[in-house]
Amino acid sequence: MNRPAAILWDWDNTLVDGWAAIQAGLNAAFRAFDLPEWDRTTVLHRVRKSLPESFPPMFGAEWERARDIFYATVRSCHLEVLSPMPGAAAAIAAAGALAPQAVVSNKQGALLRAEAAHLGWDARFGALVGAGDASADKPAAAPLLLALDRLGVPPSAQVWYVGDTVLDMQAARAAGCRAVLLGDASHDGGMAAATPDIAFSDGHALEAHLLSLAKR
Best label site of 30, 129, 205, 216, fewest CB within 10 Å? Predict the structure, then answer.
């Protein structure tokens, strides 16, 4: 396998575990609407699309009120509960020695950039593209293409998009990039549903592969 021309990363459950804040925000909105709350497993299985896409079907005409409750709750706690995924920091470091990097997430752009800065990772990425930053959110190609434009790298099969869900693999293919799965997608239908071009069990395995590419 050739060195990647660029590496784009998903954020939640790929590089970081910030699910406690997302769960808290969702459940605050659910309580306000007298809806059943979700446990962590349910959140992991159901949260995929950006909020502007997912909230109207969930909350109907008052979805913007639910949005405001969600974001107020998340902003109050997301930095305190944020933690890197296993091997993520090492994988980012290894990737940085090979190619320019960016993040493309369905998390609101302002929250994404605040989290990257909190971890001291923001300088490693040439772009941090979140929900609402492009003309459409994942699984559309638009946010990946925006990130690549900011990196000055054309889309191609030599660009990797690393994520943990079926939606991430769909976004990679929509943008003409290599679909790289981190983990086994057991929370999203498994390998058969994700159909990645290549998969790594975790950040440590990905780091080892990137280091091997650097030696070639």
Answer: 216
